[in-house]
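Posted in: Structural Biology > Protein-Ligand Complexes

Title: Requesting predicted complex, zinc ion in pocket

I'd be grateful if someone could produce the 3D structure tokens for the following input. Sequence and ligand are given below.
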Amino acid sequence: MTDLAAVKRALTAQRIETPSWAYANSGTRFKVFAQPGVPRTPEEKIADAATVHRFTGVAPAVALHIPWDKVDDYAALTSYARDLGVEIGAINTNVFQDDDYKLGSVTNPDAGIRRKATDHLLEAIDIMNQTGSRDLKLWFSDGINYPGQDDLRDRQDRLAAALREAYDRLTGDQRLLLEYKLFEPAFYATDVPDWGTSYAHCLELGERATVCIDTGHHAPSTNIEFIVAFLLRQKKLGAFDFNSRFYADDDLMVGAADPFQLFRIMYEIVRGGALDPAYGIAFMLDQCHNIERKIPAIIRSVMNVQEATAKALLVDRDALTRAQQSGDVLEANAVFMDAYNTDVRPLLAEVRADAGLDPDPVAAYKASGYDEKIIADRVGGTQAGWGA
Ligand code: AOS
Ligand code: ZN
Ligand code: ZN
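-- Reply #1 --
Done. Output follows.
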């Protein structure tokens, strides 16, 4: 039997971090469709993140991206965020948007360019010291397009050296999160292409280095929940970048393409006792809302994660264990599917009502007038966008 009160407590305590760049304009390589009311400054992105938190109650942190969110005074930005009810979350680095990085950043054959890229990682740690952020999130676009273009092993050595330098700069409770990605922008070989590569580097670095799983960064049919289970067992899972993929790194709303996969991932999280924020996993979104209104899409994404989590929490673990141990394949699968097929929306509506929130966050946002207000207020200046 599932303890419903415990399920509700777990859902109330859940935390999901939203990314500053998801509030900004974004698009594909073909076109960015600008939207009215889009933030022009890091402060306006934070205000939008605070709005998502206001309606969902479970999104109290916003991840920044440097230099897209570069400001003169990070302490002031941090207190601005706190005044709005949110914290600054992970600091994301950018060593992919500079001409110098054509042949790579920390793995570039040129030592001067490697120095520049590594210095950027150190700069991000300085920013963490000012924002009080725990997590340095690293994603490297580094890789090569043609066989023979550069030495695969030397590039691993260069990567290890840069990671070591950054890692050794961490203090207090700071952590390094290393994200992997199968391909893109490099098409033949990426320097951190998979969880195994990230895991091996993190293992070499030490206990403050853990893997970040971006759900959109795998080959089709990859069993992501297996990766989750394995890394949890090794105590090397540090974060998620949640999003949906139909084809490649689509960055669509999490739970849109494959809600069943999201449920299976969240089940492994629950099974591993890793849902509680105290466990230390950062559940982040990494999405781009190219054609839909951004704030309600992010609210919807947060709700999709909550729904998958609620279903995962509803799995009757005792019944599942009994079926598994007696080798009852069909019964074990039925227990699992029963939880997945439960309509958890009424339960989540209750959890929200208990927390003093509107049970329908998207409708509440639409009725709030915030959308109309940002469209009216945010005129002039330059809208922020992916890369701006
Ligand atoms: C890139 O594909 C990765 O998903 C990154 O995590 C992220 O989208 C990018 O660094 C924007 O911050
Ligand atoms: Zn990502
Ligand atoms: Zn990505």
